[in-house]
Amino acid sequence: MENATAAPKNVNSKQNSARRHRFWKEFFTYLYMVVLAIIIIYPVLITFITAFKDANVQAFVLDFGGKWTLANFKALFTTTLYGSWYLNTMIISISCMVIQVIVVTLAGYVYSRYRFAGKKFSLTFFIVIQMVPTMAALTAYYVLANMLNALDHYWFLTAIYIGGGIPQNTWLMKGYFDNVPYDLDESAKLDGAGNFKIFWSIVLPLVKPMIAVQALWAFMSPVQDYLMAKFLLTSESHYTVAVGLQTFINNAQNQQVVLFSAGAILVALPIACLFFYLQRFFVSGLLAGGSKG
Amino acid sequence: MQKKDAKKAQRLSIIPGLGQFYNGQTIKGVLFIIILLAFIAQLAFGGINAFANLVTLGSVSMQDNSLFMMIYGTLQILITILFIIFWIANMYDAKHVAQLLNNGKKVSHTFKELGANLVGGGFAYLLTIPAYILMIFAIVFPVLVTLLMAFTNYDFAHIPPAMLLDWVGFKNFTSMFFLSGYRSTFNAVFGWTVIWTVCATTLQIIIGIATAVIANQNFIKGKRFFGVIFLLPWAIPAFVSIMSFSNIFNDSAGAINVQVIGLWNTLVPFAHIAPIHWMTDTFWTKVAIIMIQGWLGFPYIYVMITGILQAIPEDLYEAATLDGATVMQKFNRITLPTIFAIAAPIFVTQYTFNFNNFSMIYLFNQGGPGDVGANAGGTDILISWIYKLTTGTSPQYSLAAAVTLIISVLVIGISLIVFKKTHAFEMGD
């Protein structure tokens, strides 16, 4: 915080009040930012530190004292099903990511570049269908899973995640493709490039940032989801991390907060790193893609 | 060349293929007739039956599974809708091709030409087919099934195949709106859903805009540092944060009661605060949930608004300063209008997101504490009530489906109105 320490001697009162004004402005600005930063870091730090605490920790508070240990991480993989939950989440999330990115990129490209009968109609269909709160159709998914013998199977859950993410992400992708100048396609066409070549080697490299963002989004939605996974996965060894972690703390009599914290770190850390790595692409991508985020 | 009658071609295509024959496109005509015959055959060997079963929902319990009949019936409805779309497209095609012929344009006659046409113009359809299949499977089909289910008596007393389901008309809706027990639950849950959505989202937006405006000032040092911290709540998966907060707000062992209030009482002993019942008093749970959603949700708004702010040209502010505008005037006349012009759709999606924010409600305190009847806890919103209606000890599936329909109509209706108003529908070709 700089204040008016270096004030010259013969300043008139008007300058003085401007300086004072500036000082208070800077003071309150930094005050706001520091307080907000503390409010954000405090709970995060509590969870982080608790992960290294002894199993008989009394309260879930910020406390740097006491013995630090890695025993919780070991216990996580030896005494609980955390390892399988992690693996399950990875299988579902990565399949969702790969398939959704391919489907969405193709569809977004088509809607950006081609004119065809029914285009306007189907784009409106995409907008309306993305508003449907699909997770509310719980019972229908349940009955469908029963009929297809898909209860407790990953493919069913994955297909729901992919299908649910398609409308809004296609819409985003189309918006980003729209920003790639059409002249590029035209000149490539004059040079004799085919449909596929234009798509693969001219346009696609230019939308790589958006594809990265899409991949993160598609990867994250299964990780984040609790409702569907809890509902459609019935055996404990098939749970995802979100559903599994909750079992550590949902029993008020026997809360295992240290195990929960250790498990939380292992899932949050890699995701947060990926997030910050891709973060610079978000704003341009989301604002260019229009309405939806 | 003889003129083709476009109207006549279209009328002939009421039976798919005939119009195409009239236009001289024999191969296409044959293909279309094959599709027609396939549809008729499908109807004859199962389709009609599926429709009939959909109407009766079965007559012999243990033998007829009403649910499966409903699903096959829905599938049949979808197939029929697809055929109707094809049928309309076919009539349009006949008219369109006739007009092309009249204008002396070339149309495809042979198999090879048709194939080439498909690869060129049909490329578009081909590439979007996977998207459609997945959306129909994951969205359209379940929503249709839910729609039908809302008009049956599917509940814990009627579980197929042991029991048959019956159509009950609007009974689920009328009992929700007029039957005293369900009505009071619905009113309580719906009321809190609205309050929750409005308060939490508005809080998010206010903190987001304030932080963006404050942190975007030129003189600030350490912008990158603060930028990373302000994004943390978005970068960490929400379920992890919510579960952590559920520990932090624990009545007896949580950091808020033990540490924060403890610290306050040491620093400001004359204004003593007693520990708060965050988890056991409905009012305080609601307060906590709204505050936590502000924490979780503001970074997204903050990032978007920062992007918008940086796009506002600097000279706009300079010109305003020269004209003697105060800081507040500049904020009200330049900053806010720009933000709302661009970010309105983003705000709306945040409201609809929170309207259905199951994780926040359920993972914090499982919709509790308290009880407002029909399985719903004191902080349950509609979506978590649906979850409880479906997973409780005496499930009320059809009632849950009815609530789902109400939610969908509300969310879609409001979004449509706002998107229409903000012109988000205008799409360039």
From TrEMBL, chain A:
GO BP annotations, alphabetical order: maltodextrin transmembrane transport
InterPro entries hit by this protein: BP-dep_ABC_trans_perm, MetI-like, MetI-like_sf
Q: How is this protein positioned relative to the membrane? A: Multi-pass membrane protein
Q: Which GO terms describe its cellular component?
A: plasma membrane
Which ranges carry the ABC transmembrane type-1 domain? 86-278
> Where would one find the signal peptide in this protein?
none
Instruction: Please report a single Pfam family linked to this protein.
Output: BPD_transp_1
Give the Gene3D superfamilies listed for this entry: MetI-like (1.10.3720.10)
Q: Name one GO molecular function term.
A: ABC-type maltose transporter activity
Organism domain of life = Bacteria
Report TM segments: 27-52, 85-111, 123-142, 198-220, 257-278
Q: Where in the cell is it found?
A: Cell membrane
Keywords, A to Z?
A: Cell membrane, Membrane, Sugar transport, Transmembrane, Transmembrane helix, Transport
| Role according to the record | Part of the binding-protein-dependent transport system for maltodextrin; probably responsible for the translocation of the substrate across the membrane.
Family statement: Belongs to the binding-protein-dependent transport system permease family. MalFG subfamily.
Q: Please report the name of this protein according to its UniProt entry.
A: Maltodextrin transport system permease protein MalD
Automatic annotation (TrEMBL), chain B:
Q: In its UniProt entry, what is this protein called?
A: Maltose/maltodextrin transport system permease protein
Question: ABC transmembrane type-1 domain spans which residues?
Answer: 190-418
Compartments where located = Cell membrane
The record's principal subcellular location, in a coarse class, is membrane
Task: Give an example GO molecular function.
Answer: ABC-type maltose transporter activity
Q: Where are the transmembrane segments?
A: 30-55, 67-89, 133-152, 164-183, 189-213, 225-245, 287-313, 334-353, 397-419
Which InterPro entries would you find in this protein's record? Answer: MetI-like, MetI-like_sf
Q: Which organism is it from?
A: Lactiplantibacillus garii
